[in-house]
Amino acid sequence: MAVVLALGAALVFALGTVLQQQVAEQSSDEDALRAGFLLSLARRPRWLAGIAADGAGFILQFLALRIGRLVLVQPLIATSVVFALPFNAWLGGARPGRRELAAAVAVTGGLIAFLIVSDPGGGRTDPTTRAWIVAIGVCALVSGLLVLGARGRPAGQRGALIGIATGVLFGLSALLTKTVGERLDHGIVHVVADWHVYALVAVGWVSMTLSQASLQSGALGAAVATQMALDPITSVLLGIFALHERLHETALGAIGSLAALAIMIGGVVVLASAQGDAPPAPGAPGPAGASDAEPALS
After folding, report:
1. Domain for residue 293, yes or no?
2. Confidence of residue 170 (pLDDT cuts 50, 70, 90)
């Protein structure tokens, strides 16, 4: 069931990403790194539709993380880049080329191998205080340095650096989401009174802002590819070191699982880059011609 929920989340996240890309890239560089960037985007119906899709995807992800392990769920959600192919064709008129189809096959093959080889086990419901301090501190430091380093860089470098920072925070958000889900067994009052849910809101807001900033850079291939790659990588590392989860009971099985995951992430990077850098299809409206008033899913 965790696999089904995670793949469902990937499908809905794909729709949300495509809709948000079409709007975020129209903003200026200065607007992208302002605190009110998300509020300005919220005036656009198409972006709001993308956020609604993300909300539905988060619910499915939340349910998947409640019953599944972090090292399993997050790599599955990275397959959203494959689901984005038909959405790009539907909403933007962009037909996938051979490179994209080959990358989609790599992602699918790597995913199937990962599911067959991996045998996730172990784990705890909540990291220790020390593990939380290290996890949050390292993720915050890495992301902060990447964002600072992105200032003044060319579009491709800026999109990639902010995208990496976003992916790292997405992984941290997944860890917080799983922990909040575990606390629901003790009642909603226990969740509201706990620090994890407020940390999740804060990290979620920052990661969403950085996500839109990376998409705005115009180098969508670099932005999306780095986001999609660093999310599962960070999640697997946090699952192993913070939650003491394992991919397999044996060293050989763990190596096989990581190899399958590497093939899958490699396909994700190629596919995301190809989709992001693809020009609009003939007759399809470009970013500058998109209408603020058009229906979100038309």
Report:
1. no
2. very high
